[in-house]
Amino acid sequence: MDVRLTNEQQQLRDAAAKLADDLGPGAVQDLADDTRLGRLEKAVATTGWRSLRSDGASGVEVAIVAEEFGRGLVDIPFLGPVLADDLRRHVSDDQQTWAIAIDGEATDARGLARALVLSGNRISAGRVGAVVPGADLTRGFAEVLEPFEPLGDLSTEDIERWHALAVLVTSADLVGTSRGAQTLAVDYAKVREQYGNAIGSYQAVAHLLAESQALIEGSVSVLRHAAWAVDELSPGEAQQAARVAKIYCARAARTVCETAIQVHGGIGNTWECLAHVYLRRALTSTELFPVRLEEMHRGLS
Amino acid sequence: MDFRDSPEEAAFRDRLRSWLADTAKRFPTSGDEYWERQPEWHRTLYGAGFFGLSWPTEYGGQELPPVYDVILDEELAIAGAPARPSLGYLVIGLGRHGSEKLRRTFLPGMIDGTERWCQGFSEPGAGSDLAALTTTATRDGDNYVIHGHKIWTSYSDVADWCLLLARTEPDKPRHRGLSAFIVPMKQPGIEQRPLQMMSGVTKEFGQVLFDGATVPAENMVGAPGEGWALAMTVVGHEREPSTLGFAARYDKLLRDLVARSEGSPSAELAWAAVQTEMLRLHVRRRLSEQLDGVSHGSEGSLDKLLMTWVEQSVGHAAVSEAGARDTDMLGAYLYSRAQSVMGGTSQIQKNIIASRILGLGV
After folding, report:
1. Which of B4, B302, B362 sits opposite A213 (nearest CB)?
2. Which residues does chain B have within 8 Å of residue A247's beta carbon, measured at their own beta carbons?
3. Is the pLDDT of residue B295 over 70?
4. CA of A40: how far to CAs of A34, A85, A108, A128, in Å?
């Protein structure tokens, strides 16, 4: 047993982190900066990370990029295209950037023309239509328009593994979101002063942030296993590992984001503070490929 | 990256599993019955080659990688056996701070279970603030003479030896005036006053009054005034799930509860199951990080907090599934409340995380 990241995986993490730090939104007003968005889109397109799966990468690599993009609130499509690519690779060499359609809606579709539609075991291509409003300020949703052009039929195993990947990628996004919100809150607690001291020096504030840190550590550990499991365990086991990760990481992310808002006080409840951008992203990733606690009985026997 | 057992690890697991099939059910896993037979369980586990796995061979261990302890914990839980005795922090403390002579004299008996040990750190006036302790050890010829009151001293009434922290230099600043000793417990000048825990257990918790008990000066661990360093090593490792082996206890309890729930677990039980799985995977990540030579200091406080949440969520599931009239499950629940106190309270762990990991200057 050795569950460390390889050197190559650490390099991928560092590269994804740098890209997100350099070109992600550092403040709420950056969300509307089209010049920045254009540079971010170009940079991500150059990396080829949206076609990691068709290039032979494992679930671990996909999770690494998704986590860093969540941490940096990367606001151009990644999750949707990487999941579309994972299904399409079985029938086509095409590596174009498509959204993924879930329940008749194109997910992570900002600026994209086409969406991959999964129905039963059949995958098809649809067109992306009008924008559908959502909570997330960093990722877009849209209608999917017929006609659907059939691409092929996949095996049940391929689809189950894809589903494990989808639950995993949203979990990775949640871990990144937690980490980003925690950094925002810890940095603020070091500079905001009340009663003549930084608020982070008071135990009432410090203990909230310590709890968040422990939740993040637990999240990283369950995520690591689910990421490995996507390709290394049976489809059923991979799905169960992903479910465990999703439940833990989603609960953790909501608490960590809420703590970040609380630590910011009044400012934390304003539109100008990035904390709600993290919370909105966390809520959205929780609802994508959702897992309910009641489903855990499948693994309890 | 690989979460699977290596061929060697898998062979060990198989061997352990077949041994446990015959042995596991012979030993009680909780309550006074467990504590009464813990010495026998310890020696049986050791005798079969399944205890002291990661410790040095020269003191009776097997020098296997720490992951073997995790395999042991997992299989103990699956088999419904008691958890392994929690001695790791004493072995590490004595191993790191004791002289070669002390290590050779004391570690083999501690590891093979022929000699019983307790840890004399906390006092009525020195709990979280350990450096406030007032028990004194005063030099008298070749001996030190001890006066003071220790509390929360697990298994003190059956112990042969106590790793004791006492004040030897009252004039020095409080952290620098402490020394550590290996004190023989079967002697005059020691009075045992056992405590009954709220779960009803009477064979675990103790308090000890030292009134003129003696310890040979050569039993001092480290130099005079260096007791604090040893104490920090011991409490640091007292926070590590992989050192403690408690996970086997939660995991077993969880399995019992799942079996009772007959396929429709409550939300509390499902959440306890998710958290228990988290801890299992978390320990694996931590042990892998040790392969890089990363030694965890303050991170132990994160792990202790996670472990506490797991035990207490399993405790909540125990009462919600079985009800408070179920003596065993009520006992498990009540016992779980101690986890956020023993080995450093959750509040102290959060202070450590906030100041040393987050840099918040608490």
Report:
1. B302
2. 271, 274
3. no
4. 10, 20, 15, 21
Residue of B5, B265, B279 lying closest to A297 (CB–CB): B265
Rg (CA), chain A: 19
Beta-carbon count within 10 A of B45 CB = 23
The model's pTM: 0.95
| pLDDT tens, residue by residue, A170-225 | 999 999 999 999 999 999 999 999 999 999 999 999 999 999 999 999 999 999 99
Tokens of B91: 């072995």
Residues of A in contact with B356 (CB under 8 A): none
Q: Is B21 exposed, middle or buried (0-12, 13-18, 19+ CB in 10 A)?
A: exposed
Q: Nearest residue of B to residue A192 by CA position?
A: B360
Contact residues, chain B, for A222 at CB < 8 Å: 277-278, 281-282
How is residue B155 written in tokens? 């298994």
Q: List, for residues A104-146, the tens digit of each pLDDT value.
A: 999 999 999 999 999 999 999 999 999 999 999 999 999 999 9
Dihedral of alpha carbons A142, A143, A146, A150, sign: positive
Question: Could you count the other beta carbons within 10 Å of the beta carbon of residue B85?
Answer: 22
Task: Provide ipTM, 2 decimals.
Answer: 0.95
Cβ contact (<8 Å) for A214 and B258?
Answer: no
B278 in contact with A, Cβ within 8 Å: yes
Judge whether B173 is closer than 8 Å to chain A, CB to CB: no
- pLDDT tens-digit readout, B169-187: 999 999 999 999 999 999 9
